[in-house]
Amino acid sequence: MAKINENFLKLPGSYLFSECAQRTAAYSEKHPDADIIRLGIGDVTLPIVPSVIQALQTAVQEQADAETFRGYAPDLGYAFLREAVAGKVYGVLGCRIAPDEIFVSDGSKSDCGNIQELFSEEAKIAVCDPVYPVYVDSNVMSGRCGTYDEKEGRWSRVIYMPCTAENHFSPELPKEVPDLIYLCVPNNPTGTTLTRQQLKKWVDYANEHEAVILYDAAYEAYITEEEVPHSIYEIEGAKTCAIEFRSFSKNAGFTGLRLSYTVVPKEMKYGKASLHDMWARRHGTKFNGAPYIIQRAGEAVLTKEGQKETMEQVMYYRRNALLIRDGLLSAGYRTFGGVNSPYVWLKVPEKMTSWEFFDRLLDRVQVVGTPGSGFGPSGAGYFRLTGFGSYERTKEAIERITKTSDLC
Ligand code: PLP
Question: 408: CA distance to ligand 1 center in Å?
C-alpha cells in the first residue's frame, strides 16, 4: 500500500466556515422567508474596475494574434509587473526593493502556504492567536506542529502569541525563540495593526535571533493611520529578516482573477543558504507563472487611474466597516479593528460563547458573522463581521442589531 503523508490525517476538519454554512442553511430551511444578511464573508463583492477590465480585454485580444500571443509566462513574473511593483508600490514608500526580489504568483494563500517548504522539519513556528488558519495548517501538513489538543485547540509544537483586548492586540515577544514568526498586519480576523514602533521591536528580535518574519500584508490597502507602516521594509533592518506577502485580492477585487507577489530580499542569508535563491528555485520548479492576461490586469491596478478606481472600492468597504464598528459601539458593544481593515472584531456579550452569539444573532436578527473561536484559542469570546457586503445591507444589518435589545 502506498505510504501517505500522515500529517494530513492530523488536521481537524475545516470546521469553521462549513459549520457556519450548515447552521445558516438549517435556519433557512426552517424559516424559508427569512431575509438573512451575511456579514461573515471574507470575499469581495464589487466588480473589477473599468481600467482593469480594459487591460484584461486588450491582453485577451493580444492572445488572438500570432504576433502578440504569449504562452508560458516567465515563472517568476513578467518584468513589466515586477518593475511596476518595485517602483509604484515600494519605491513610493521609500523602500529599496529590486524587481528581481519580487516573485509574482497566483495568490497569497499559495505563497503563505508554500513558503514553509524552505525550512527544516525541525523549524519552530510562532503565530498570532487568533489568525488566518493557513499558516498553521500548512506547517501541520509538513509535520512541524506536533500533536493537536482538541480541547484546547492547540498544536504542541506551535508557539501561540495571544492577541486580545488585554494586550491591545499587540503580541508579546515569545520567550522560546521561534525559527519562523508569522505576522498578519492588518490582522485577519481582528482588524488590528502594529505601529512602526511595535514592528521595529519584531524586526530587531528576528535579527538578533536569526529568525525569519513572514509578513502577510494582504489588507495593506485598508491602512489609514499614519503610524501604521504599509510594508515591513519601511522598518530599518527588515531586509535581513523579513519576507513580505502581498495580494491583489482585497485591494483590487482579484479574488477570482488570482494574482499576488512575495518579496524575498537577497540579504536573507542563513549560513550558506540564500532564501531568495531557494524561493526562486522552488517557484521555478513548481510554478509555471501567473497568466499573462492577469499580470497585465495587475499592472493596470498600479497605474494612476487603476489606483484611483481601486481605492474607491477600498473606501467603500472601509465605510461599511466603520458603519459596523460605530453602530456596535453606540449599542454598547466592545469593538476592535474596522479602522485600518475591512474586519470588525467584537467581544461577545458576557457569559456567551462565540458560537452561542452566532446562533443568537441568526435567530433574532438574521445576521450571519463568524465565531472568533474558529481562528485560534484566543479568539474565544469574540466575533468577526466584515465590510465586504453592500452598504445598504450592511446598514440594515447594523440597524437590526442595534434595535434589538435581547441579543445579550
Ligand atoms: N492572507 C490573508 C490574511 C487573508 O485573509 C487572505 C484571504 O482571505 C489571503 C492571504 C489570501 O489571499 P489570496 O486571495 O491572494 O490568496
Answer: 32
Residue 197 placed within a domain: yes
For residue 278, being part of any structural domain is answered with yes
CA dihedral over 298, 302, 303, 308, signed as positive or negative: positive
- The sign of the torsion formed by the CA atoms of 287, 288, 293, 297 equals positive
Q: How many domains does the chain have?
A: 2
Q: Is the CB of 109 under 6 A from ligand 1?
A: yes
**Separation of alpha carbons 108 and 184, rounded Å:** 12
**Residue closest to 250 by CA, chosen among 208, 271, 219:** 219
Query: Given ligand 1 and candidates 248, 249, 261, which is best to mutate, with the most ligand atoms within 8 Å of its CB?
Result: 249
Count of residues in the chain: 408
Give the Å distance between the CA of 406 and the centre of ligand 1: 35
Does 144 contact ligand 1 (Cβ within 6 A)? no
d(CA 355, CA 85): 41
Q: Give CA–CA dist 164/68, Å, rounded.
A: 53
Distance CA 84, CA 291 (A): 17
Q: Is 216 in the pocket of ligand 1 (CB under 6 A)?
A: yes
Residue 135 lies in domain: 52-303
Cβ neighbours of residue 229 closer than 8 Å, sequence gap 6 or more: 195, 196, 199, 235
User: pLDDT tens digit string along 68-107?
Assistant: 999 999 989 999 999 999 999 999 999 999 999 999 999 9
Phi-psi region at 146: left, alpha or beta (left = phi > 0; alpha = psi -120 to 50):
left
Report d(CA 64, CA 68) in Å as an integer: 8
Q: Please check whether residue 2 lies inside any domain of the structure.
A: no
Q: What is the pLDDT of residues 125-180, one digit of tens each?
A: 999 999 999 999 999 999 999 999 988 889 999 999 999 999 999 999 999 999 99
Model pTM score: 0.96
Distance CA 219, CA 108 (A): 11
